[in-house]
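Form P-L/3: holo structure prediction, ligand magnesium ion.
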Amino acid sequence: MSAAEFWMYVSICLCVLGVLLSARAIRQRKKWYKALYVDTLTGHCSHKKFCIDAQQWLDTDRKESKALIAFDIDNFKLINMIFGHQTGNYVLREVSRVLEKSIQERGIFARKYGDLFSIMIRYDSIADIQALCEMIVADIAQIPIRHRQIYRITVSMGIYLIKMGERNLDDMQNYAILTRQSIKNKYNTYYDFYHSQMKDAMLENKKLLDNISMALQHHEFQAYYQPQYDAKTQKLIGAEALIRWNNSDGTITMPGYFIPIAEVSGVIKYIDEYMFEEVCRQQHQWKKAGYTTLPISVNVSRHSLYDKEFIQTYLGMLKKYNLTSTDISIEITEGTLFNAIEISEKLVNELRSLGFRVLIDDFGMGYSSISMIKRFKASSLKIDKSFIDDMGKEGKAMTTYIIDIAKLMKMRTIAEGVETKEQYEFLRDHDCDVIQGFYFAKPIPASEFEAML
Ligand code: C2E
Ligand code: MG
Ligand code: MG
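OUTPUT (holo model):
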């Protein structure tokens, strides 16, 4: 080989090597890009990329009105618990798809972590943002979770309207998240706009949650018992256990004040267990003292119901106090049951086969169609107070309709919140089985209920 040929050969080799190396570098860069800028779960842009783009948008554009939205899926933990993580991941991908479709060129979005998403959009008017949020809420509610499962996915969105010239993205995200948290316990509210008083309200909630945890440790909660009567004979047939919080200053806090926040945070599971054990302990004590006890019903929230250990935990408590499943009934609200029909159906049937009475609480609040109740082998239907309150023509017709349907499905009916003679007589004459309400008795401490046994 001549010297010229040799050098030509060397330069060809170097060229090939160069091409190979730069291809590798491009591949590497693509990999790095993907790792940094793509959310591998959803396939959309990562939160890091979102922050870079959002910051650039804030820094360079001072004319357009922009908003930052933070939202998450309500009870996403439950979706994972009920349907499994794969379905959970599928839901997150579908949510991203909904966002891509609805936001398009109007802005950017990304998943921050878990089920928390961030959106930044330009807008012309408040109505414009509202329309977008409503569209997102509606589309997400349509996401089908596994064949035949009926589970309506809801979200909570916090909206922060960015002030002109404002540039601190972290602050904006915090305000939007704060707003999202503030609507968590509001029924039928899926989005809200940030306002300055929200910070104080959130601090209040945090304080309340800390106090609930302390109260559980210090046994400040007490079960009150509201007697239930046979509508025809007016004989005492049982009671519902209702929680009361005894404060150190002698005042009592009602559940309406702390149950919603306990539900949102999940602490309700510990409250439910506390109450179940409290009622078990009381029933055991009454039996030991020679009283003929009556079934007491306890309220069980969805956080307890969907917990994998739920049935074992509750059976364990019954065993500890030498009781059987006929001593305690389980009240589950209609809303909880119809949120995840197939799982609820399985659980209700299992509870029934173990001998528990299962009561559908607050029935008629608008979650379900009457035809759905036939899927549950529940023992009783508790007609919501709102029907009992309405003694007009329509209210009466609805109440009798519910009683008739329950009868057809071999369920007992319990009327809640009966306050007047007129309500009682109407219910009795229309074959309602059980009456619970101030007309007969208010919730009372164990010592007073004991005197009635
Ligand atoms: P709920 O389970 O539907 O209980 C019935 C509520 O109606 C009770 O309110 C009771 O005091 C009230 N009530 C009964 N009769 C009348 C009446 O004639 N007139 C009026 N105005 N009210 C009547 P309370 O004790 O304030 O409890 C409210 C809700 O808090 C309960 O509704 C239940 O959802 C929840 N709750 C109470 N204790 C527990 C518990 O231990 N665990 C869970 N998860 N929730 C509980
Ligand atoms: Mg109840
Ligand atoms: Mg109720």
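COMMENT: Residues 3-37 form the longest helix (35 residues).
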